[in-house]
Amino acid sequence: MSPILVTGGTGTLGRHVVRYLLDRGQPVRVASRRRAPAGPQPHEWATVDYRGGTGLAAAVEGTSAVVHCATNAVRGEAELARTVLAAAKDAGCPHVVYISIAGVDRHPLPYYRGKLAAERVVADSGVGWTVLRATQFHDLVYRILSALARPPVLVLPQGVRVQPVDSGEVGARLAELATGAPSGRVPDFGGPEVRELSDLARAYLDTAGRARKIVSVPLAGRSYRAYRDGLHLAPGHAEGRVTFEEFLAQRR
């Protein structure tokens, strides 16, 4: 059985994809910027330089699919996708699965625009492809709230709702898609609940044992309006099951 390559296989999402593929009995090759850790590993390892593409051709060679989870906000999502897809096409890899974000075709945030451009690179690559869009991960919401809670007052953008989803559940879905045939754009994968950000902040503070006053303030700009209007949400695709409180309990 040919291995499946997971770019960014040591990251928040990629490590879940790797785990679920291995649970399925699927050989896995992890592509990472880091050197392989010492000792035996349950999967193959490929050290790659995404900026210059060094090591990527060897990483893709002989694979049955690529799950592209690596990200690079500095260099640009489209350019990174172009490098990975070119290597996949040259190697004759029949299937690339790309993880994107719900609402990238509606939201003006520059990072979202980059993800949409990367989707187009994937679709136009000449390689069989699947794109899954997900809402924001619990992990991301947790990191944001943790940073905002450092001062005595926790300041939040007013009127913003979030639909956080468990990265493990998204990883399981990507593993399922990677072992199947190319499917194009598949239905979004959203968290189980659409919640006010202030509500999630209170849940975080309760779990962390932090006493903070929460202040919500209106902001300006197109990106803020898009968040306030819920363009990043996928309420019709509440596929996830793990709530934010359950995620917090698992961390604790």
Automatic annotation (TrEMBL):
What terms describe the molecular function in GO for this protein? protein-containing complex binding
**Any Pfam family matching the protein:** NAD_binding_10
Record protein name field: Nucleoside-diphosphate sugar epimerase
| NAD(P)-binding domain residues | 8-139
Superkingdom of this protein's organism:
Bacteria
